[in-house]
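TL;DR need structure tokens for one chain.
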Amino acid sequence: MSLLVVGLSHRSAPVSVLERAALNADDQVKLLQDTVAAEPATEAAVLATCNRIELYADVDKFHAGVAELSTLLAQHSGVGLEELTPFLYVHYEDRAVHHLFSVACGLDSMVVGEGQILGQIKDALARAQDLHTAGRLLNDLFQQALRVGKRAHSETGIDRAGQSLVTFGLEQLAAGTDVPGWARGRTALVIGAGSMSSLAAATLARAGVGEIVVANRTFERAERLAQILADAEGATARAVRMDAVAAELTRADVVVSCTGATGLVLTADAVAEAVAGRTGVPAADVSAEAPAGTTALPPASAGTDENCPLDLASVQGTPGFSVHGEAAVAGMDAATLEQHAAWVGEGTSLREQGREHDAGGRFTPEADAELIAALAEAVATAGRVPEYRRPEPVAEIPRPAPAVFLLDLAMPRDIDAAVHRLAGVRLVDIESLAEASADAPMASDVDQVRRIVSDEVAAFGAAQRAAHITPTVVALRTMAADVVAAEIARLDGRLPGLDDRLRGEIRQTVHRVVDKLLHAPTVRVKQLAAEPGGTGYADALRTLFDLDPETVAAVSRAVDNTDEKDRPA
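>> reply
TL;DR here they are.
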């Protein structure tokens, strides 16, 4: 059996794809159960965070394993396999071990060096253990990953290379100013009461905010977090129900949202209303004031044409939809937009309306912009269209100082991305954090952590290869002991008059001879097996000594059962 990981992360996929592929707790349980039920896999674990989804498995066939794991990820994420495949990465055996160890050390995090990933790896292991989908390989792998991550943080200054996603996000909100100075005395609204929201609330409390308001769908959890903040951090904190968020939004200076919701928690309209209620000035869409040559957000006036292929009338008033949602469609190419936008031209394809083309027959940027505007007008009522590539940046224009600061740490996003376009608001979300962290300087400690990872990967591989041959060595020694016992019994039959003292001496002598003959070969074969490519020595021993495969398998099962009993909880 061999280790295989198939996944996608912020390094391989755009935020829009990660949002749609996000797995909730129930999805993860079903994915694990279906993976171990599939033919190629005997063990499975899922590592799902705000910026990665990875499925680990012990498989007996590489190609079949990749196909099965990719298909299962697509099925449980709800993203079609054809769309998901370009963003997937695959690691096998030592490369898979290297990947997980790097993840555990924070080298693959959006913010290099952040330590929250260790808790997420621990949770992934606990989930797999609870569901009995983690066997010897994945238990060893994930426990070793936790030790490697702790070693990296204790032996190096990797913490200086980056911070938690929460800290980094608050630094981006503060825009270069000192976070405690920026936060002191402000009112903060924290939406959600999970681990990330709790960390954000505690960080804000330590930064000196004047009041923290916690909103959560389960009010008791919000109350519990508020009480913890008051007791442990000395903060002024209170809990509210989710239906009070709109009112609290008008009072809040800082909003942090990280829930497990699948739709938007805060729409651009809700944020615009809150800013208007707070400042008395409407939060205008800055794209409407853009200089010549940029595309302003079209009015949301489309909606009743009976020939509209999007059936706008049936989705009027859809909860969680924002009329400022142009960002959700602005990245689509002209060819994709045309089939949706033709109805805007009263049934006439925009291509047929004489739009400009380049020499290759493709739309020019100007024509593309017209199509984008047309579809944006249509979906202003119908809903969102998946974003296939990042929208073109809006031209920089002067903006007023922010009146409200919003930090969205959820995946899928809690806050409408169109809030970026509102005046008087600063939004930092997963996508903008990814862009900012890509330019962050790397500490010299990163190189030291990489050396630790390489050493630990080699050690893990050697231990696994050595463990692989142990059942064969045990079976060989068992067979030798059986041979000795048979020969002693045969001697007893031929020389029944031997006294007990002499018989004992003979038995010890034969055992010593066998042990000495087997000692050097078995010690040496374990050393050789620990080296790369050493797994063939177990096969050689089984062939040379004609060992029964079932005997070796029985020893292996016994070793696994002993490990499971001895494994700490």
